Amino acid sequence: MDNTALYKVGYGLYVLTAHADGHDNGCITNTVMQITSVPAIVGVFSLNKQNHTHDMIMQARRSNVSVLTVETPFEVFQRFGFQTGKTVDKFANYTDIARSDNGILYLTKHTNAYLSFEVTDTIDCGSHTLFKGNITDGAVLGNADSATYAYYQQHIKPKPQPLPQAGYRCNICGHVFEGEVMPEDFVCPVCKHGASDFIKTTVSAARKEH
Fold first, then answer.
1. Are 66 and 103 part of one and the same domain?
2. Helix extents (H) in 46-199
3. Same domain for 163 and 84?
């Protein structure tokens, strides 16, 4: 299967935030969906169980969603998507935030809206959990267009640089696995995607000449 076909699906991009045991955290997700409008119900899909945010939401049963815009710089994705809250304070020295009535932070810059929700149900999907919740609050924060996954791939994510040697590059975050053979069960240490999301990359002809 050509996994890049999934890039054509109209995903949005969001920062999903949580607060538990006096600790704030957040992660990037591309799977937030309105299920109904009356009552206002939202589904947050495919949140990886390895994410610290996942465990915090399971504990606190509430979260905020910040809707990212096309003006979002890559640094925001690096901060919230390419490191783990288990070892890093993702909000350290980050000032473009506010705390909503539910006690959880949301982004005030590079986002055009935020939503708060209370978890009402979860579905175990193996490596991921599907969350279902009632929307309890929200506000429009700006008029910039929402970022889609396709827009991120084409305009925000840096273009890959030539490899110093043969290896495999992650289609999601650009992490490089160096080696001739990638294990089938390899998991990207940065974005947690599997070997199927890596493509084999070889040294360019120009690099070989040197």
1. yes
2. 52-60, 74-81, 149-151
3. no
